[in-house]
Design a protein that fits this description.
Strand content: 15-25%
Strand order of the largest sheet: 3-2-1-4-11-6-12-10-9
Shape: globular
Distance between the termini: 34 Å
Structural class: alpha/beta
Helix content: 25-40%
Order of helices and strands: EHEHEHHEEHEEEEEEHHEEHEE
C-alpha cells in the first residue's frame, strides 16, 4: 500500500538478502533518531531465496512503523514513494507540475548496512535544508571525524566547514577533493523532494547501485546552484560493508565467509541479532568502515 501521509521526510531503505543487517539498521535508527515521527519510512526489499523473503516477512512484523515493499519494477517502486508520475510523463511536464504544487518535504535514502551510532533530530535537518538554499543535501554519514575513504582506499582531510546552526556545518563539495566531492548518494543522505524528483525523472536505473551511479554522474549540474553539502560535526551513522550482494559494481566489501549474506541469514534464522547498543558513541573514520558484527542471541 503506498504511503499516504504527509510527514516532513520520506525515508526509503534499500535491502537485498540482508535481513540481519537491515534489522540492525532499523533498530539503530529508531534507537538514535529523536523524532522518528517526522519520517514515513519504507523498505524496498528483494531476496534471492525463500529463506531471505521469509526473513523480510518477519522483519515486517517486528517493525510495524515501517512499510515493507517487495521489489517489483525498482524504478517505479522508487517513483511511487517520491510521488513522481510514471515514465509516460516527460520531464517538462513534471517540472510544471512541481512548480504549481511545491513540496517542501525531504527524501532520506538509507541502505541495509547502515548503523546509527549517536542521537540526531530530523527536524533540525529539515529546517537547515529549508534555510540553506545553496546546499544540495544533508549527509548523515559525513562529519569532521572522517579521515579516510574506504571505497577508494585513500586518506582524507575534511575541508573548511562553515557553521550553520548548533552542530550543523556545511562545506563546498566541488572543492573538497576525492572522497568528499560525492554529494549525491543513497547510503544516508537527505535531499529536497523537488530536487530529487527532477533528477530521478530523467534517469534510467534498475537497482540501488545503478540509481546511485546515475545520480552521482549528474552532480556536476548542481555545482553552481548548490555548491554546499551539510552534515553534523560528527557522523551519526556509517555503513558496515560486511559483504556484497550485487554484481553491477565491484564495490569494496568484506570477503570473510562467516560474514557472507548466506552465513548471516543462517545466523538470523537461529535467533542472532546485531547488538546495536555496542556501537553507541562509535566514531567512524570513514563513511564506509568494516567493523566486527557484535552478534548476540536474545533470550
Amino acid at each position: 500500500m503506498p504511503l499516504t501521509d504527509h510527514r516532513p521526510v520520506i525515508g526509503i531503505v534499500f535491502s537485498k538478502d540482508r535481513a540481519l543487517q537491515l534489522d540492525a539498521a532499523l533498530r539503530s535508527f529508531f534507537r538514535h533518531c529523536r523524532d522518528p515521527e517526522q519520517v514515513s519510512l519504507a523498505v524496498i526489499y528483494t531476496g534471492s531465496s525463500r529463506l531471505s523473503l521469509d526473513q523480510y516477512s518477519q522483519l515486517q512484523h517486528d517493525f510495524p512503523a515501517a512499510e515493507f515493499i517487495a521489489q517489483g519494477d525498482f524504478r517505479q517502486d522508487v517513483f511511487d514513494l517520491v510521488r513522481i508520475p510514471g515514465s509516460r510523463v516527460g520531464r517538462f511536464a513534471l517540472r510544471a507540475g512541481l512548480a504549481k504544487r511545491p513540496d517542501k518535504r525531504l527524501v532520506l535514502f538509507l541502505v541495509d548496512d547502515n548503523i546509527f551510532v549517536r542521537d540526531f533530530g530530523l527536524a533540525g535537518v529539515t529546517t537547515a535544508l529549508q534555510e540553506e538554499e545553496d546546499a544540495l543535501g544533508f549527509a548523515l554519514q559525513m562529519g569532521r571525524n572522517l579521515n579516510y575513504c574506504y571505497p577508494l582506499d585513500l586518506p582524507l582531510e575534511f575541508p573548511t566547514a562553515i557553521p550553520v546552526h548548533g552542530d550543523i556545518v556545511k562545506y563546498r563539495w566541488p572543492d573538497a577533493g576525492r572522497g568528499l566531492d560525492y554529494p549525491l548518494e543513497v547510503s544516508s543522505s537527505l535531499y529536497r523532494l523537488g530536487d530529487v524528483a527532477r533528477l530521478l525523472a530523467g534517469l534510467d536505473f534498475r537497482n540501488p547501485n545503478t540509481l546511485e551511479a546515475h545520480m552521482a554522474a549528474r552532480a556536476g549540474s548542481f555545482r553552481r546552484t548548490h555548491p554546499y553539502l551539510m552534515c553534523f560535526t560528527q557522523s551519526v551513522t556509517f555503513c558496515n560493508p560486511a559483504n556484497r550482494v550485487q554484481s553491477d559494481y565491484a564495490n569494496r566489501a568484506g570477503e570473510y565467509e562467516d560474514r557472507s549474506a548466506a552465513s548471516l541469514a543462517q545466523l538470523f534464522e537461529r535467533g542472532y541479532r546485531v547488538d546495536v547498543a555496542r556501537y553507541d558513541g562509535f566514531v567512524p573514520s570513514s563513511c564506509h568502515q568494516e567493523v566486527d558484527l557484535a552478534l548476540s542471541k536474545p533470550e
